[in-house]
Give the backbone structure.
Amino acid sequence: MLRTRTRTKTSLPETPTTALITALTHDGRGVAHVDGKAVFIDEALPGEQVEFTYTDIRKDYAEGKLARLISRSELRAMPLCPHYGVCGGCSFQHVQPEQQILIKQDLLIEQFKRIGKLDIPELWQPLTGPHWGYRRKARMGVKYVAKKNKVLVGFRERRHPYLAEIGNCLVMHPVIGEKLLALGEMIAQLSIRAQIPQIEVAIGDEECVLAIRVLSPPNPEDIEIMRQFGHRHGISLCLQAKGPDSIAPLPGEPDIIPRYTLPNYGLEFHFRPALFTQVNYELNRLMIDRVIDNLALQPTDNVLDLFCGLGNFTLPMARQAGRVVGIEGDLPLVKHAEANARHNGITNVAFFAADLSKDLGNPPWALSQYDKILLDPSRAGASEVLPYFKIWQPERIVYVSCNPSTLARDAGLLVNELGYRLVKVGVMDMFPHTAHVESLALFIK
């Protein structure tokens, strides 16, 4: 006879539990220890005595949500967004904005010690910018709720797969952040309202483009409703029937391509809605300045830009270096990088498509030597490509990271195995009110 094993779920205590918060996790949850088990509690801060209710109990840890503050941390702030705690887009609004980046800096220092086995010799002053209305790129969920005859537009609930019911978003640029209700009301009028799962938001310096994913084709009445909405709000609406390459403007509407500028370098970038760009333009400009300054570029330098995207760093570096080679795994991004180089009249760059998480083989660019190298990988880091540094032999490396854990790991490899010296590290407030940590490190041979 076949026997099946049933998993019993631990029953959760109904009454609140008292605990002292002793630490903070990387995603902004307070850490307490109750009966020898770590408990991660949303919106609790170190030093606070709290009452919390359990939301989950596992073998090795538990999770909870704040029920009442018994004592209050000096770092605590009143969340500005009325949807905070329900919407999962933000996790740090209960912390004073100027303190959020310092918490992230402490996390970065801890990761370098624990994972990279390194002490940071010197810290840059954190790069900071606007705390609200900064986000210009996003993928928002869309859900038609038949029982309410209503369309929700926004982000997932905290720790749940359901779409949060929000009226606005304070971290999104106001051109969209203040129009979520209007956007939902417009979609609710469409015959395909139940066939729209998401919207790609792309906001340039002046243009705003929304790519609406459609699982069924809209009828002429749907097209007209969307057209009128776009004209009324100054937004270009596009349809995405399949993959990113299928994004196209509404029939009869112009093809609006968003753009952003880097005034310090006389550059203008064009990009499509589904392509990766930095979400925070103000911080992006500050970050590029810091990268350029610390690479100490010279007119004779041969520079390698790994994970180059659409040339966000490549083209500014080309203004000062002799030659820059950009490598990116996403071919559409490579094509956009080449187009942006042509658009800006830059001829001392070359772009190649290559998967930097695999063996590169022997293409000519991989067998050359480089004076300076910039790394800007995804959250997975760059450990697979680091062995090639024995061939490339750069004298100076700047590493831009969106994950302090993999940056710390790769820093340990660069220092302990490849003979580089860690000079300076710093954090950047690219994503205020969220758990994302953007950072920068300088290495010298």
